[in-house]
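Quick one - inputs below.
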Amino acid sequence: MCELDETFFQRDAIAVARELIGASLLFQGIGGTIVETEAYRPDDPASHSFSGMSERNKSMFGPAGRAYVYRSYGLHWCFNLVCSSSSAVLIRALEPKVGIDVMQVRRKQSSIRLLCSGPGRLCEALAITREQDGLPLTKIPFVIKHEKKIADVCVGNRIGISKAVHQPWRFGLKDSAFLSKKF
DNA sequence: GAGGCGATTGGCT
DNA sequence: GCCAATCGCCTCG
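Output:
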């Protein structure tokens, strides 16, 4: 395992999204293995950065290696890692590893498979909200480490969006039981 | 200033 | 499979 520094994020979101599969993500000591990500690029109509800066998305236009957290459907939070030139990686699912009991309470959900399998679910399990928007991901309370060996990654179209649906920018850990949806 | 809709989820049919 | 919950942003007037 090796802790990530800022240079890891100062690259294209697609490369970062692919390499994050199999990495470990902890927030306040709670989290697990990243099993599903999606990349969003600046020239991408599905990206929040596509139509310029607003109060909501300003973190995407800041330095790489920070968090971008936004509210989805007025209810849920979605957690992104900002990469180079206003691109970002959405974390869509984790395999829970550390603090499972805490996550079960926060989610009111005993099934481990359903704790973090979805962008809104993992934010609830890790207690990530707008308060973390803009925070550096390379410092406590965040710890992100990745394995030296490359994970077995599968690729597909992004899901849950209506624009630019044919871009193959969704990445997942092959055969993981903790994906938000099968590839 | 009003209306529509979204990188979602959980519950009910 | 369908639908409500719920709110900030974008578009249009």
